[in-house]
């Protein structure tokens, strides 16, 4: 633990040679095509990488520059990680797909961490977005015109700030959520930031970390000194929802296999079942999912501390519906306002959720089914 407390500070180093301000006119397509085959499955390889100049002064910025050179990825220097222009694509659908192929490397300047209810006390945004194309994703609206992937290089500064939050809140335990604005595991092979963050929280008596992922590249994290302070959660859904709406994400069976690896490494384990959707046969599909999960985790009993479940019904806002239908014109997502209940939120904004009776039936069925299969589990909430 002492070693962890004495983490070396990120010292700005001499800037490497400036990166080009423009991408090459002809990206090396033949090289790019080969990368997915060279990479382990589900390892994201961007097609272009943009750097803020200031990011180049950090070791992680330099590490990513070196990786881009090794992979032959086109790079460009940009003035701000919030202003990315000139991405290819004519339609919203094409622009979205191209943004997801773009990695932006920047410095997080605002180190105030927003609150993060109900999952944690504060957000800890190491990155934003992810390579997935889930149609229902709440980031469709929260990231707005910035669906590109963005990683921050000043991780040490963020950890120092987290330590201050934890100290201020002592003797209470303070919990941070890494996945509030993206899927941090999806870029871990490029940054190593999650490993560093997990080890930092492993050293914090009063600090806890949690994140959720749909991705499966867990190997680099299995040996992290987590000290039981990080809850590793996987997002699961019925086979049909995954097939129809969670494009470019690993199949459920692979997520569950990754969860078993994580549980064997001693991490507190959790699952988010979301978004729960009602369609003909939904009950059987979700119960089948729970059976599959029980079977895979059976050999790791007892799961200690108990596994947690968070249950979230599908919801959408008027704005989300508009963006989703622009980006996925053929979407089969059920967003019929007539069949939903409008729930008012902050500032007069609101969302469409299932009617009370449907939501109650959903909660009762799934909660009971989970506790039958995992009697020691904790269902943290249904919303
Ligand atoms: S994997 Fe998660 S963050 Fe990524 S698109 Fe799907 S729901 Fe959104």
From TrEMBL:
Enzyme class name: lyase
Any one GO molecular function term: 4 iron, 4 sulfur cluster binding
Region span, Disordered: 1-39
PROSITE patterns hit by this protein: RADICAL_SAM
Record GO cellular component, one term: endospore-forming forespore
Tagged with keyword Lyase: yes
NCBIfam families from the UniProt entry: photo_TT_lyase
Protein name: Spore photoproduct lyase
UniProt organism field: Heliomicrobium undosum
Gene name per UniProt: splB
């Amino acid at each position: 633990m002492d070693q962890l407390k004495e983490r070396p500070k990120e010292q700005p180093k001499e800037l490497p040679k400036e990166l080009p301000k423009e991408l090459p006119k002809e990206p090396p397509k033949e090289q790019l095509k080969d990368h997915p085959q060279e990479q382990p499955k589900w390892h994201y390889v961007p097609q272009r990488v943009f750097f803020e100049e200031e990011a180049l002064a950090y070791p992680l910025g330099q590490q990513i520059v070196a990786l881009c050179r090794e992979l032959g990825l086109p790079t460009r220097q940009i003035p701000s990680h919030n202003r990315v222009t000139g991405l290819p694509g004519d339609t919203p659908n094409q622009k979205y797909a191209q943004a997801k192929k773009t990695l932006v490397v920047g410095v997080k300047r605002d180190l105030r961490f927003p609150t993060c209810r109900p999952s944690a006390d504060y957000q800890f945004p190491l990155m934003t977005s992810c390579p997935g194309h889930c149609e229902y994703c709440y980031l469709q609206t929260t990231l707005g015109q910035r669906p590109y992937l963005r990683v921050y290089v000043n991780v040490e500064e963020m950890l120092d700030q987290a330590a201050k939050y934890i100290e201020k809140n002592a003797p209470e335990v303070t919990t941070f959520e890494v996945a509030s604005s993206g899927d941090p595991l999806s870029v871990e092979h490029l940054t190593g930031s999650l490993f560093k963050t997990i080890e930092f929280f492993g050293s914090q008596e009063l600090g806890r970390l949690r994140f959720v992922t749909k991705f499966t590249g867990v190997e680099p994290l299995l040996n992290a000194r987590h000290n039981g302070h990080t809850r590793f959660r996987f997002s699961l859904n019925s086979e049909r929802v995954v097939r129809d709406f969670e494009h470019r994400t690993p199949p459920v069976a692979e997520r569950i296999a990754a969860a078993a690896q994580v549980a064997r490494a001693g991490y507190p384990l959790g699952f988010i079942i979301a978004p729960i959707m009602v369609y003909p046969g939904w009950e059987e599909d979700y119960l089948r999912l729970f059976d599959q999960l029980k079977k895979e985790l059976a050999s790791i009993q007892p799961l200690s501390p108990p596994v947690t479940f968070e249950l979230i019904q599908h919801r959408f806002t008027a704005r989300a519906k508009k963006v989703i239908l622009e980006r996925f014109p053929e979407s089969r997502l059920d967003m019929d306002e007539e069949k939903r209940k409008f729930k008012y939120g902050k500032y007069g904004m609101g969302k469409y959720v299932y009617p009370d009776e449907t939501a109650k039936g959903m909660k009762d069925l799934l909660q009971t089914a989970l506790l039958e299969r995992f009697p020691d589990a904790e269902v943290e909430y249904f919303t």
